[in-house]
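Thread title: Can someone regenerate the structure for this chain?

I was given the following input by a collaborator and told the matching C-alpha cells would be attached. They weren't. Posting the sequence so someone can regenerate them.
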Amino acid sequence: MTNPWLALEPGADAARRTRELRRAHERFLSAGSIAGPVRPVVADSWRRSARWVDPDGLAPVERADAELDEHRERHPLAQVMPLFRELLGPIADDGRHLLAVCDAEGRLLWVEGRQGVRARAERMNFVPGARWDEPHAGTNAPGVALAVDHPVQIFAAEHFSVPVQPWTCCAAPVHDPRTGLLLGAVDVTGGDHLASPYSLGLVQAAARAAETHLATLPAPATASVTLSALGRDDAVLSLGPRRIRLGHRHSEIVVLLASHPEGLDSDRLSFELYGDRRLKPVTPRAELSRLRHRLGPLLDSRPYRLRTPVLADFQTLSDHLAAGDAAAALAAYRGPLLPSSEAPGVVRQRGLIDDRLRDLLISSRDPVLLRRWVRTPWGADDLFAWQALLGATAPGSPLLPRVARRVAELDAELGLPPG
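Best answer:
Regenerated them for you:
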C-alpha cells in the first residue's frame, strides 16, 4: 500500500480483510506476535494499547453535565464547531455516521448524528465526556491521530478494543495555528465504507479548514503557561484553558527545562534525568519525541528548552524563600517537588527547596507558622521544627504541654537523651 494511513488499498475485499485482522488480533492477544495484514501504525498502537487497556473493556466517561459543558464552552475548538457541522454534518446526518470532536487528551467533546447510530455508539461509551486516547480506549482513529499527530483511518478489527471492532473511523488532528500546539482531533465514525481515500481526505480537509478559520479570529490575550509540580507525581502544565497532565518522565523533563530557561543540551539533560546510569542514546530522544507530540513547538531543541516562559509553582516558592518571606513560602508549599522522582536533577532541587523552607520557618520563630508546618505530613516528624515551636510558645500557653510531649516523643524515637 502506498499510503500507510489508509486502511484498505483500492480493490481490497473488506470482509476478507476483517477476518484476517481478527485472526491477527487474536494471535497478538494470545501470543504477543503480530503478523498478517497489520499496518505498522496499527501494530505500534496495539503494542502501546496492550500496556494500558483491557481489550474487552470500554473507554471511561470522565466528565458529564455542567463540568463537561463548561469544558466545551472554554475549549478553542468550540469556535470551529459550526464549521465542522457545515463540512461534515451532512455525513453525520445520514443515519449511518457520527461526527465527533475530542480535545488533546482524547476526551470527546461533541458526538453528533442521528439518534439510532448514537444509541449504538453509546453501548461502547462513544459519548461526550469519555476518554478515547490510546491509554484509555486502545487503538482508535482519534486516539492514534493524537498519538502520532497525523490523520489516520482505523478499520474494523484494527481497533484494539473488541467492542469497537464493528466500527471504522477517520480522524485528523487540529492545531492552534499560532502556537502549533495540538488542540484535539475531528473524527467521522461509521461502517466499513469509511475505509476509503475520500473519507480520510474529507476529514483532513475539515481539520485544515478549522485551523485556517482559527487563524482569522482575533488573537486571544496572551495566555500564561503555568506548571504545577509541588506535592504531585504527575505535573500539570496549563496553557490558557488547556491543562496537560504529564506522565512521570515527562514531568521530570518539563520541571528540569523550566528550571533552566537557557536550555540543556542532550548530555546534560540525560545526566539530570538518569545520572551515571548507562543508557542507549535513543532513550532520552524517544521520551523527548513523545513529549514534543504533546507540547508541539513549545518544546525546542539544540538545546532542549521551553520557548515560552513558564510560571512554575516551585519557582514561585523559591522566590518567596529568597525574599525571606516565610508566610508566603509556607502558603505556596503544596508538598515536595515530584515526590516519587529519582531523577538526580529533581532530587537535588527538591532537597534544596525543602531544606530552605525548613530553615526559614525554624529561624523565623513564628509560632503560628511553625504550628502550621508541624501539622502537615512533611512537618509532623520534624524534631527541629517542634523544638523551635517549643521555644516560641509563650509560657502558660495551653499548647505548651502538648508541644513538649511531642518533642519528648521524637527525642525518644531518635534515641536522644531528654531535654
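The two ends are 81 Å apart (CA to CA).
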